[in-house]
Each structure stands twice: as C-alpha cells, then as structure tokens.
Task: inverse folding
C-alpha cells in the first residue's frame, strides 16, 4: 500500500506511515503483486515483508558498499583498475548550467573503467540509462523529471483501476479523465478513490459494446430534436441526426474542448448534480431556488446539446455535410464559455427534463 | 490546365493499432510537425490538404481514427464514401502487423464499398527511425509478402518523426484515391447523369 503513495522518497513515506485498513482486500492483493513486479526499488525500502523477500539482494540495509567490489586490481587484467566515480568528481563534471562538460565523454570514460561509488548511483544511473540526455541542462532535466513523474503516476493509477474494474480495464481516453484529478488530489490513494467515484458513471463510456455511448448520443439527439426542430431537420438531411459529431465530447466529458480550469468547473457542477441525486435531494428542494433546474444525471449531455445549439445558425446556413459539423465540434477548444454553457444547459434541463 | 473545373474531394481513412503513429503521420504530412508527446485520438477527426496530381488540384480529406478496438463500431459512420484506406503498422511491434488482416477486413466489411475486390489500400510501416532500425521486428520482405497476398497493395516504409517517405506515401495515396474516384464517377455517371456544379455535392451520394 505504501508503494502506491504519490511520493516514493523515504522521507515522505515515513512521515505518513499510519496504517490504513483496506476496505476491499481483493484488489489490493492484486495490486501488491503488480507493484512487486513494477517497482521493486521503492518496495525494498517499505519494510513490506513480501517485497523484502523478493528483493533481498537489493535491500540497502543489507548492502555494504565496499564489501563486494573486490580489490582495485582485477585478477584477469594486468591493468590496474581505476577507482569508481566519486561524488566530488561527479560534481566537477558539470558546468554552470548543470550540463555535463564535453557531452559526457569524460563521465562515461570514468564509469566504463571503474563504475560508480554507491552513494551517488541514484544520481548517475538516470544518465546511464537514457532517462536524461547526456547533453541536458539542469533545467531541462527538471522538466523531464516532473513530466515523467506525472506519467508514472497516471500509469500506476490507471493500472490500479484496471485491476479494480477488470470488466472495463484500461481504455484510451481514461487518462484524460484522470489527469485533472491527479493535479488536484495530492495523495495517490485519494486521487485513486476520487477517480473510482468519477468512473462510477463515466465507465459506461468505455464499455466494449458501446451501449453507454450510444445511449448518450441518443439523448443529445433527443434534446436537440425537442428544442430545435429546424436544426434537427437539417441534421436529418445531412444524415447526422445520430449526433456522432459530439462523440469525443461524450467520451472524455469535454476535456479536449475546455481548458483545464473550465473542465474542473464543469465537472464539479456536474458531480454536484449526481451527488444530489445520490443523496436523495430531489426536485422539491430545487423548485424553490432561483435555478429551477432539478439535478440531473445527464447534465453533461444537456451541456453538449447546448454547445451545438449555440452554433445552430452556422450549422443550418453554412454546413452541408456531417464532416463540417464534426470539424466544428472538434475545434471548439478555446471557443467555449463554460458558465454560459452551463446556463444554457440548465435552461434546457428546465424545459426538457421531464420529456427526455 | 485542369481538365475539370470541379474541385475534387478525396476521402482517405487511416487505420491501424493504437500507437503506431497514424496521427503523427498525418501531422507530419499536413502541418510538417512532429510531437513526441502521445495523445490518443478519441473517435475520429480529419485534416485536409490540397494536392496537385497530373495538373489537377484535388483536396485530400484524411480521416484519423482511434486505434483501440473499443471505438470501432462507431467508426462505420466515418468510413462511408472513402476513396482509399491507409493501413499503418509499427515495424517494431509484431502485434501491430498481425492485426493488419483484421483492419483490412473490417474496413471492407464496414465501409462496404461497391468494389471490395479492387478497392485501393496502401500499407505504411512506420517508425523505421527507432533505435536506428535495430529494434525492428517485422522485415520489409514480410510486409511485402503480405501486400502481395492482398492484391499487390503499395508499401512504404516511413518515419513520421524524421519525415522520411511521408510525402511520397501520401502522394501515392492521393493518386490511388483519384483513380478510384474516377472509376466510381464512371460507375455513377451511368446511373445518374447529373453534372452537379456545386463543389461539395460530390459526396452527396452516401450509399
């Protein structure tokens, strides 16, 4: 469990080591075996007995830096072996902007002849293994480090989700839904359970039989039909009334069309609707409030329909094929005002929620 | 001089496993750009590019599709009226080569062109730049054999990253698509002899 945490540095894991009883054991069991395979180095420091058994030979505790190196002189070579790369030497290899001098030639020469001293291995290995380019500056490496950390977190959580929900597994598009959650939720385990909560409904977008998508496209189509028969007839004429052109908006819930901040706004409002329904805070409460729109499980679909309706004039007057409408929808990025979108969506809910 | 005043729109569908580089190939061809960062295509999208072939200006409409099987059945809507299908695999990934048969057959199945036997396909083996070619697992010979077995499909080895062979591959795509479109035109002219002056109307026949 500890290995699942956001940061795998020893300082942060010891700071928050209060044990948490897992509420649903089966997925965690799978997870642990997964992590033994994927990140034995972080497990080795976690004190997890299974992990220690699996990677005893790598455990820093049992490792003595100078015991196994043997003498500096190899028994097979007449040449005298050079000493390993030391911390002091390593620091000297870098120029002011944190770039290895002479493209790393001296560095590699040194390591090729004598290896690396144990205490700086963690710093040196990423260069040897191509994580960092030999010509990279410190600033460049920091960017790479951040990106790689984010990528890794995403992978880890998506893998965890695939084990948690094997029926859905992993599917393209899921990382679009996960990435905002990772940014907001600091702790990995909290991010994971928030994602699980999000996916309770969104998982239907990723079903193999695509019924979840079809149902939603149908609702968008119905909303447009009810609201704007003129536009709907135009869509019919273009054989586009099935609303395939909003496919991407449905699958990743506007993530590709809205900015990061806008996406969070839309999702929060949408989640609040769903939470109200779960809590049984129904219509009567909302009827008295200014909004009048009762909470709905399908607020997203009303918002999608609203984004299309906002372009009705353009679509009717200028577009004569489904391709053009798809193009319009796929290039909405940066064109949308999320609060206007939500206002329009709420208006649609007020008018249509009992007819759809 | 163009033989026809009418602008021709050629519809091309790009298919293949996820991650083989479909979007990257298109971006390189149309925008001359390559991004290291991977962003999965959701659903479908297209780009257009004007190409001059035999003194004729044609518009290539190249459709990019999601490579994961879960987004397949909805792809049908986008396959309609295609003039050429571009299959892409990654020369470093066996699986992406093995699934070519499925993509090929699924396309014919779902697009149901009027001429499945002669419908133009083209195969691109992408990512030849990776590791200087050392990590390659599908040989050119193997790919050519597959192409031969499918009725001599043209084959190109490409690198979207290093812009190798991308232009020539798509030029070949455009030629094939244009040929196909002409054949179709002849076919349809005998059915509906109606020279429509409007530009986009050509695609009106969505049968």
Result:
């Amino acid at each position: 469990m500890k290995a699942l945490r956001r940061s795998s540095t020893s300082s942060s894991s010891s700071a928050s080591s209060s044990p948490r009883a897992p509420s649903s054991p089966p997925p965690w069991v799978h997870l642990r075996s997964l992590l033994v395979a994927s990140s034995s180095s972080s497990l080795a420091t976690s004190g997890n007995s299974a992990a220690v058994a699996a990677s005893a030979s790598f455990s820093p505790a049992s490792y003595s830096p100078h015991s196994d190196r043997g003498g500096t002189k190899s028994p097979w070579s007449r040449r005298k072996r050079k000493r390993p790369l030391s911390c002091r030497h390593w620091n000297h290899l870098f120029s002011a902007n944190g770039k290895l001098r002479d493209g790393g030639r001296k560095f590699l020469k040194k390591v090729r002849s004598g290896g690396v001293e144990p205490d700086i291995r963690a710093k040196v290995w990423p260069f040897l293994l191509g994580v960092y380019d030999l010509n990279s500056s410190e600033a460049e490496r920091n960017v790479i480090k951040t990106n790689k950390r984010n990528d890794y977190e995403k992978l880890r959580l998506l893998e965890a989700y695939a084990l948690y929900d094997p029926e859905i597994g992993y599917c393209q598009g899921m990382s679009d839904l996960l990435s905002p959650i990772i940014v907001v939720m600091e702790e990995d385990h909290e991010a994971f359970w928030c994602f699980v909560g999000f996916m309770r409904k969104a998982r239907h977008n990723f079903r193999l039989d695509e019924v979840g998508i079809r149902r939603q496209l149908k609702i968008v189509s119905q909303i447009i039909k009810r609201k704007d028969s003129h536009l709907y007839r135009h869509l019919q004429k273009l054989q586009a009334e099935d609303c395939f052109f909003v496919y991407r908006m449905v699958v990743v819930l506007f993530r590709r069309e809205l900015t990061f901040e806008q996406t969070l706004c839309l999702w929060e409002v949408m989640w609040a609707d769903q939470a109200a329904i779960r809590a049984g805070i129904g219509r009567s409460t909302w009827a008295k409030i200014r909004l009048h729109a009762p909470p709905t499980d399908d607020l997203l679909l009303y918002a999608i329909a609203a984004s299309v309706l906002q372009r009705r004039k353009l679509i009717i007057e200028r577009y004569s094929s489904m391709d053009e409408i798809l193009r319009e929808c796929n290039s909405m990025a940066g064109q949308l005002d999320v609060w206007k979108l939500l206002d329009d969506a709420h208006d649609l809910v007020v008018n249509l929620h009992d007819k759809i | 001089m163009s033989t026809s005043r009418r602008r021709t729109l050629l519809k091309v569908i790009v298919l293949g496993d996820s991650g083989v580089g479909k979007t990257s190939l298109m971006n390189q061809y149309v925008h001359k750009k390559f991004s290291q960062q991977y962003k999965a295509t959701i659903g479908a999208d297209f780009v257009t590019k004007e190409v001059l072939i035999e003194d004729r200006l044609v518009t290539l409409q190249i459709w990019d599709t999601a490579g994961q099987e879960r987004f397949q059945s909805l792809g049908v809507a986008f396959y309609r009226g295609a003039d050429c299908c571009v299959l892409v695999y990654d020369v470093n990934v066996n699986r992406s080569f093995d699934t070519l048969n499925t993509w090929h057959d699924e396309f014919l199945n779902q697009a149901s062109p009027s001429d499945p036997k002669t419908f133009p396909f083209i195969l691109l083996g992408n990512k030849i730049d990776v590791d200087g070619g050392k990590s390659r697992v599908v040989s050119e010979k193997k790919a050519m054999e597959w192409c031969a077995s499918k009725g001599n499909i043209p084959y190109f080895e490409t690198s979207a990253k290093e812009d190798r062979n991308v232009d020539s591959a798509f030029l070949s795509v455009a030629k094939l698509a244009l040929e196909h479109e002409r054949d179709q035109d002849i076919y349809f002219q005998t059915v509906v002899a109606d020279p429509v002056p409007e530009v986009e109307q050509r695609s009106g026949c969505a049968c």
Notes: Residues 138-164 of chain A form the longest helix (27 residues). Confidence is low (pLDDT under 50) at residues 1-65 of chain A. Residues 180 and 264 of chain A are 7 Å apart (CA to CA).
